[in-house]
Amino acid sequence: MIIIKNQMVESTNGFDQLPDSLILLIFNSISDIKTLICCRSVSKRFDSLVPQTESLSLKVDCVISPESDSGSLFTLLKSLLKSIHDLLKPDTKPTTRNQNQNSPARILNQFDRIRDLQIELPAGDLKLEKGAVIKWRAEFGKSLKSCVVLGFRRVADSERNNAEVEIDFAGGLKTRVVWTISALIAASARHYLLNDVVKEHREIERLVLVDREGEGTVAMEKEGLRECREESGVAARGVDFQEEGRRTVVPSVRMRMRHEQRVQLKDGVWVEGVTLVVVRPCNGGGDVEDAELALGAFGGGIFGEAVQVLLKNESYLLEMNSF
């Protein structure tokens, strides 16, 4: 007598076959916080794994009107995070929502193991004359460690054939100093709004704040983050921060400036008033050469090409007091 037993074959989801480590690798590749928050609703397993994501990217898409009295970078970032908070707490009534619930630190509390965080603002901070381009990159610890600024003005088609056009050096120098100060103010404002994130997320090893226009970058590496946390008690008492202006105080700095009146790039584009400024604190500033800092900030494309031209030029040293 032959007995045939029925075998039940369970259909399984493909993701159920993957180990947690591989799913976390996928989440780290996604990195976008809004997408990851949506992933939490897929399954209980995803809900438990998403908070373990180590590499995160927060893209800001909300713009506050310039007429609003909440136009500071700090308030801007808090406001744009409102939509993310709504995803996390859909049942929360707007009238009872605490403003602190919309802060970057509050949103990021949904993640337990952040190692690498990038925040992208919707636009740059500098309002320049038509044709002017400024790019900058600043590195911070508890205060400014270095800042590299590259500025130039694109030459209009009608001016390309006039190679003898005179450029007012004195007026140009004044403009370049204004460019540099504006970049330092923008960098210090961005650093200020990262303060709560740095203090409350001690696991972060790299933090970068950029903007969609590619104007400026604030970077904090592992050593700078450690330094900032060690000084958090002092900063909380207002020693290193300007509360009214909502920015970190810029220390006394040395600015090494290189300039070229007019440069033709490989793609045929002419630029004038091309200026490279490497800024370091008067006390310290590290042993890194100007060339390494500048090429590290603008190593590729037309900006890297302009930097390589300027690094061959003579430099001028300016000093500026803390502000």
How would you describe this structure to a colleague?
The protein is α/β, with parallel strands linked by helices. Helices cover 33% and strands 24% of the residues. The protein has 12 helices and 11 strands. It has a 9-stranded mixed sheet with strand order 1-2-5-6-3-4-10-9-11, sandwiched between helices. The N and C termini lie far apart (96 Å). The model is unreliable at 1-11, 63-72, 79-102 and 163-170 (pLDDT under 50).
Summarize this entry quickly.
With 323 residues, this protein is α/β, with parallel strands linked by helices.
- Sheet with the most strands: spatial strand order: 1-2-5-6-3-4-10-9-11
Strand content: 15-25%
Distance between the termini: 96 Å
Return the average pLDDT rounded to an integer.
77
| Coarse shape | globular
Would you spell out the secondary-structure blueprint of this structure?
Elements: H1 20-30, H2 33-39, H3 44-49, E1 55-59, H4 73-80, H5 82-88, H6 104-108, E2 116-121, E3 132-140, E4 144-154, H7 169-193, H8 195-200, E5 206-211, E6 216-220, H9 222-230, H10 232-236, E7 241-242, E8 247-248, E9 253-264, E10 270-281, H11 290-297, H12 301-310, E11 315-320
What are the salient characteristics of this protein?
323 residues; alpha/beta; 9-stranded mixed sheet; disordered N terminus
